[in-house]
Design goal:
The protein has 588 residues and is an alpha+beta fold. 28% of the residues lie in helices and 18% in strands. It holds the Pfam family SACS.
């Protein structure tokens, strides 16, 4: 048997240093969240979670109910070393790995005092309190199982529960006997119902986690009764498919990868499909800062192809849904953020304080890299079949009005305004905001909007109609330089292009629209009134507003139509009464 020491930082025997380590362990558990990474599996593979009562009580096995985690990859020598060195991660050299900080495994001590690991060819049990294993832990070769049947039996039962045979299993089984009374490690007592609640919480978060985890693809959760009967609590599966996308223009200093991720499972109903973009900065200062911090300047964004999304921040795994981490963006974002010890907050130390580079790193990821990945994501999303062209646009009315998240949304809106992601009316391709003529959000009634759009399209104008929230986003990201289809702009187009191609009803709708800004003098010369089935300029001397047409025989076609809708008739009469000279309108 091999002695497992829980920390290689000390030179003494484990029992002599146990109080020191227990103090350290206790302090970490106070800061590290209960219920967070307890459900994190390592090493990479396909995890299956089960609640399994132990069927054999023996020293070191931890009789009673236990949480088991099975993973289809075998632990390496470095993995064995890693679980013995809390706070000193063997994954630190891999900046893209979950568990780089060496704290994740410690979270299991919220539930157990005797974590066990079966990973061929070894079985190991850790005992920080030295209650049953004087050395603080021990590792046995599986060939010794016949000599220790009580120790191995709960693990064999666990393998059988997940469909594995002891002779051929090529995976790792973690076994965490639930703490049934307070200990020196933690005062919290665990019971099966608490674990079931924890699993239900995990099922809610799992769809978001699987969007960004690179190796975990399937999760199944079962509850196993003492008689061996299993109850399925939930399943979830992620199926990523690489998406070949040409390198977009304007992506200098940025490496981009794309995939479509299909989620299937109980928590996602009939399933959902997500577009995931991963961008990695390839230029300074991001690369140098990431090298110093041992992190990769990389960020992933995920957006559902159908339906809405209230964006969450993740550091591989989801961060708590709080106001602090609510971005207001319709995407989930994951990056190796610098976090507080409890993984609940992004670190923002002030200049001159310890760890000030953490603030620079988080700002680089959140305020620089995220907006740069966002606009290519939008450009790819709008080209996918059936995608909502404007679902990726944030609504400033539903985002923070100040602080870092407001700065983030503002920068995202600027990037979107510069990207070709606006859908042109009646045309192909995509427009940038600076190229487009936008229909105002309050462009009269529906008939007037359609008439204005038809006129501009016929005149060759790059017109786009966007929802109100996109208008607000453009106003935030590009307060100057937008071209609107205002009444004045439409009057100029009418003078250049005319309105002969429009039906009579469309010309009257245009008349209502172009007169709506009160600049009635600008109406002179516009060919909008339908007379004798052909439009005549409003300034024509023969155009009159008069009830007594019979007084002017032979000129009936020169009068305004008698069947004008009340609103337009009232508008023209009001203009005449104010003395505006449209030919003979002044003698109304």
């Amino acid at each position: 048997p091999h002695l497992l020491s829980l920390s290689l930082l000390y030179r003494d025997t484990f029992c002599q240093r146990a109080p020191t380590f227990l103090d350290y362990l206790h302090s970490i558990l106070q800061k590290y969240p209960d219920g967070g990474q307890i459900l994190k599996v390592r090493p990479p593979g396909n995890p299956i979670w089960d609640l399994l009562p132990s069927r054999a009580g023996t020293a070191g096995s931890g009789a009673g109910p236990a949480l088991l985690a099975y993973n289809n990859a075998v632990m390496s020598a470095r993995d064995w070393t890693g679980i013995q060195r809390p706070g000193v991660s063997h994954k630190r050299e891999d900046p893209r790995s979950v568990g780089r900080f060496g704290l994740g495994f410690i979270s299991v001590y919220h539930l157990t005092d005797l974590p066990g690991v079966l990973s061929p060819p070894y079985l190991g049990v850790l005992d920080p309190e030295c209650q049953v294993l004087p050395g603080g832990g021990k590792r046995w070769d599986i060939s010794e199982a016949q000599d220790l049947p009580g120790l191995f039996k709960p693990f064999w039962a666990g393998l059988e529960a997940v469909g594995q045979h002891r002779a051929s299993a090529q995976g790792t089984l973690f076994r965490f006997p639930l703490r049934r009374q307070p200990s020196e490690i933690a005062a919290g007592v665990s019971d099966p119902e608490r674990i079931c609640n924890l699993i239900q919480t995990f099922l809610t978060e799992a769809p978001l986690a699987l969007l960004f985890l690179r190796h975990v693809r399937r999760v199944a959760l079962h509850r196993v009764a003492p008689d061996g009967v299993q109850t399925l609590m939930g399943t979830l599966e992620a199926s990523p498919q690489p998406l070949p996308v040409p390198v977009p223009s304007g992506a200098e200093g940025l490496s981009l990868e794309w995939c479509l991720v299909a989620l299937r499972g109980d928590e996602v109903g009939a399933g959902s499909e997500w577009l995931v973009a991963t961008g990695r900065a390839t230029e300074e200062p991001a690369v140098a800062l990431g090298t110093r911090l041992g992190c990769c300047p990389e960020l992933s964004l995920a957006h559902p192809l159908r339906g809405a999304c209230q964006g969450r921040l993740c550091c591989f795994l989801p961060l708590p849904a709080t106001d602090e981490t609510a971005t207001g963006l319709p995407v989930h974002a994951s990056a190796p953020f610098a976090l507080s010890d409890d993984r609940r907050h992004l670190r923002w130390p002030q200049e001159g304080e310890e760890g000030e580079e953490d603030a620079r790193w988080n700002a680089l990821l959140l305020l620089d890299l995220l907006p740069r990945v966002y606009s290519p994501l939008a450009a790819v999303a709008v080209a996918l079949p059936g995608a909502d062209a404007y679902s990726l646009w944030p609504d400033p009315e539903r985002t923070p009005s100040c602080g870092r998240m407001h700065s983030l949304v503002s920068r995202v809106c600027r990037e979107l305004a510069a990207a070709p992601v606006l859908l042109p009316a009646g045309g192909q391709g995509w427009l940038r905001a600076l190229e487009a003529v936008l229909l105002p959000a309050a462009a009269g009634d529906e008939a007037a909007r359609r008439a204005v759009q038809a006129l501009l399209v016929a005149a060759g104008e790059p017109v786009a109609e966007v929802p109100p929230h996109v208008w607000r986003a453009l106003a935030l990201g590009m307060p100057k330089g937008l071209r609107e289809a205002t009444a004045g702009h439409v009057r100029e187009v009418l003078r250049r292009h005319g309105a002969a191609a429009l039906p009579a009803a469309g010309r009257l709708s245009l008349l209502r629209y172009v007169a709506g800004d009160g600049c009635h003098a600008g109406l002179r010369g516009l060919p909008l009134l339908p007379q004798n089935c052909s439009p005549l300029p409003l300034c024509s001397p023969s155009t009159s507003v008069c009830h007594h047409r019979e007084l002017l025989p032979g000129l009936a076609g020169s009068f305004l139509p008698s069947d004008l809708e009340p609103g337009l008739d009232s508008l023209l009469r009001g203009i005449a009464k104010k003395g505006k000279r449209w030919g003979s309108l002044d003698h109304l």
